[in-house]
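Aim 2 progress update. The chain analyzed this quarter is reproduced below.
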Amino acid sequence: MRKHLVLSVHGIGEQVPGTTVDALTGTAREQMDLKGPVTNTTVMLADKEHEDDGQLDLYPCHMRRIQQTDDTELVFAEAHWADLSRAPSGVLATLLDLMRLVLGLGYLALENVENNGIPRGAAVRWMVPWFVWVFYAVIAPINLFLFICAAALAVDPMVYDLNVAPWRGPAYLTSLGVGLAILGRVIAAHSESFLARSFARSFGWFAVFTALFGTVFLVAPDWIESLFAGVSGCADPLISLLGDMPALSCYVSSVTLFLKSVWVFAVGLLIALVVVSVRGALRDFGQKRSIYLAICAAMLLLWMTFSVGFWWVFKQVATSIARSENIVEKAALIRFLDVHFADLTQTLVYSVLAMLVLGFVAAIVVVRRSQFKHVLAMDPDAPSQQDRWYGRLILNPSLNMGLFSGILILAFGVFYAVAEFVLPFVSQHLRHQSVPFDCETLVHFGLRVSCVVDTGLKAYGHGAIAVVALLGLLIVNFSDVVAMVLGVARDVIIYVTRSEWANPTDPGNPSRYVYRDRIERRFTNTVEKLLEQEGPEVARITVVSHSQGTVVARRGLQAMSHLDLPQTTLITMGSPLSHIYGQYFYEDYQFHGPRPKWLKHWHNIYRADDFVGTTVQGHGTAATNTRVRPKGHTGYWVDRNVWDVFEQRGVFKGL
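Predicted structure tokens:
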């Protein structure tokens, strides 16, 4: 009996094994009026290249069989890969995954810089990697250390008294540093990706600094207090507020000041990126290939909002516990946060304002997109201006402009913070007397407008806190929905996750794509194993793919071009291959040269209102594009209009 092997490749999201193959089989049985029984089997396949100390890496391949004619059989199977990026479960896991997602955007920025045709000597080729590295290797580890030490401040006197002996605080820092340094080394040794390894290594080095700080404070407390007093703010009035725990207070205050300095550096680097990129960004803005600037701005904006919101929640929880125990006056953490929270609130105002601007722009895009829905369904060979500006929601040029506005808002906030820190010293030097920082100081330097704007924004500090609190409430109450959205974003990010800093597409470079290689190997391994299992009776292969699965399928087939496969048809639905991957990561998603001789047909099906996929053209694709009725990005597998295209193209015509 001759066999027609139909392989489904799912797209982004938390896909359950067997879902797509069941949808494909069920719809085929209905549309093709097949009467025979369906046989369900599951085969466990092994990825031999990803064995861990002899432990096989197994994954399921769900198969469904149904007889088409007396001498032909349809064998439906599935290439499943969603288990390589599982969605989080629970509120805490969702929150942590959200933070990892913001950091993970850095991989997209790196990929865009390396693979979109930017000249090798361009400044952005080293500026963007440094910007991303600062987030992973400095900002994220410092926030973690601050949380650990803030937790230490919280236990005194709420849980455990660290003031019984003067050596307890320094000893805590020393032991904490030693333990975390070992942990960081272990994590770094087992991290496959470049940025995760960078985080672990920096985490370990911060732990070493913590241990040294605690040791020196234990041996010579007077010397280290005097050293840090003028640098980190450990002198009065902070020491008087936190005198109960001088070691921890000096450490946390010093690290806090360092974190503020790193934020100034990160925003300054982002502004420098704007300066060197503005010419290219403004040129053909609606169809540009560079999105690293928008991604870097999104990283800065989102991380700032979430981290400041976290510290605000932390302060409220600590204050509530202290009040319930009637120890507010003794709680060092409360007094410490009171000293620094004014700066956090100011930062929160600017970041929330930038997010509101972005949300307003996004709302306009959504509304205008619905208004121009009929225009977006025009001939794809003659795209309109509406299609350029409203056709796609992902990586939309209008949203890019909103992010640029956010950059300017954050730049002003950083400028004011720097002025607040520097100008009093300048004024003191000019007047030979101490001048406190206030609006008059700014007016003295001709910055009256800055003073008025900042004063006006600070008046909405409570409103900014309310916005962040609302976002947090939504995350807590709809963690399942948030986790699903995060799963979609994570599937895209892991596809470009690297093992080293260097560009993996450069010949001879040790860097590789950690998860993309495994995902595409899942596809090629499934095809090869099924052909071995089904034998020479397989006369035809049809690969039906959706969303990101279309990228997996096309690259997988390209990797198998040297093999002698049966006649193969590729079907892509809702594909981002040309207008996302081919547009923004150009060099690594081309298929020039002769197409495999066994790849007979490539049919691409899309919808005019699909926010991810559209036509597939250029890049050596030679695909036939067919538009079906508007119905968004999902549901292609069971859409009768899609199956009408299958019938027109003879996809399931008898062997």
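The first helix runs from residue 19 to 31. The beta strands are 2-9, 39-46, 58-69, 72-79, 538-546, 567-573, 599-607, 624-628. These observations will guide the mutagenesis experiments scheduled for the next reporting period.
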